[in-house]
Amino acid sequence: MAEMAAFISLILVGLYLQEATAVIHSLRYFYTASSGVPDFPSYVSVGLVDDVQISYCDSRTNINVPKQEWMKEVSSEHPNYWEEETATCLGKQQVFKANIEIAKQRFKQTGGVHVYQQMYGCEWDDETGEVKGYDQIGYDGEDFLFLDLQTLTWIAPVQQAVITKNKWDNNRAAIENERSYLTQTCPEWLKKYLSYGRSSLMREDLPSVSILQKSSSSPISCFATGFYPNRAEMFWSIDRVEIHDGVNRGEILPNNDGTFQMTVDIDLSSVPPEDWTNYECVFQFSGIMLDFISLNKSYWSNIYSSQVKVLKKSLLKLLKYSKVNAFKKYLTIQKYKNQKSSVYFSE
Fold first, then answer.
1. Most CB contacts within 10 A, which of 110, 175, 294, 301?
2. Its family (predicted)?
3. Do 145 and 132 lie in a common domain?
């Protein structure tokens, strides 16, 4: 099996346009305060639209800046947008600094490294119009508080958060204000961001897919990279039926160029080598299924790179004229615009 240590070239054996499915859009903001971490800002805020970073601010720069060119267009409609975002960054620094100290007291902690984080935003289904909002707070990597929009109450997974839960539950005006923002204002901003970044966010980049086995006894890895958006699935199958035994699915990870990568491993150590060609690595992407199958060793060459270039061009041309709307957008916003407020813990 020494030859299996080399790249196994793949050939595209099937292209199937499937009915487009609804896309859920999201924009999330992560606010993070830390203590005891040397050479790192004590406060950082990051905004993400469909997992693409759109803004950044920290306690060293003290200015909120756009991370995508299209986000600069917001200023044309809202001239004071970035000044307001900077003011929010400065204000939240003070709030989070106070909160992390109170959390340390609640947990009877003094020194050491500690992290307080809030993830806040909404999701919008562009087909059904369904909206979901969320406000989640964590401390040292564990859930601390989160808002239940069904009951309009705060949930405290740990005893140390009960004091805050009770106080916030009693502030019905604040909860109603947040419900209104998460279910109405947030989706409105989400759609604005989607319109600003449509040409970038709605693009479709097909993956480069390859298979690698490091040694004859190691698992076989199916590796896809360079695809966008990140709403993709990849799995191993036999006769188009997904298999799970011996499969280890990795997370979708970002590349430096804004695209994504993922890996799915399979252990075929108990399968006779002559049966390996029955296994397919399947990549499914925004309504398009790309079936890849390993070839006989006589084809283990550079055929894949040349084949996929031709197939990419053909597929993109097909998509251009197809009525299948396979790339709808899903955004998330976590932002107070006209309803920004600072929330402190209370003893």
1. 294
2. Belongs to the MHC class I family.
3. yes
Distance CA 264, CA 220 (A): 8
pLDDT in tens, 87-109: 999 999 999 999 999 999 999 99
CA dihedral 137, 142, 146, 151 (to 10 degrees): 180
Question: For residues 230 and 151, what is the distance between their CA atoms, to the nearest angstrom?
Answer: 32
Q: In residues, how long is the chain?
A: 347
Is residue 251 within 8 A of residue 236, CB to CB? The reply is no
Residue 333 CA to chain centroid, in angstroms?
13
The range of the structural domain enclosing residue 210 comes to: 204-321
Considering the domain architecture, whether residues 132 and 152 belong to the same structural domain is answered as yes
DSSP secondary structure code for residue 250 in this structure:
P
Take residue 302 and report the two structure tokens written for it.
């550079």
**Same domain membership, residue 230 and residue 169:** no
Counting the structural domains of the chain, the total is 2
pTM of the predicted structure, to 2 decimals? 0.69
Q: Is the dihedral of CA 278, 283, 288, 292 positive or negative?
A: negative
Residue 89 phi, psi dihedral angles, 5° rounding: -60, -45
**175-181 contacts at long range (C-beta below 8 A, 24 or more positions apart):** 175/147, 176/152, 177/339, 177/341, 178/135, 178/147, 178/339, 179/133, 179/149, 179/152, 180/339, 181/133, 181/336, 181/339
Task: Assess contact for 36 and 112: CB atoms under 8 A.
Answer: yes
308-342: pLDDT as tens digits: 333 344 334 333 333 333 322 222 222 223 333 33
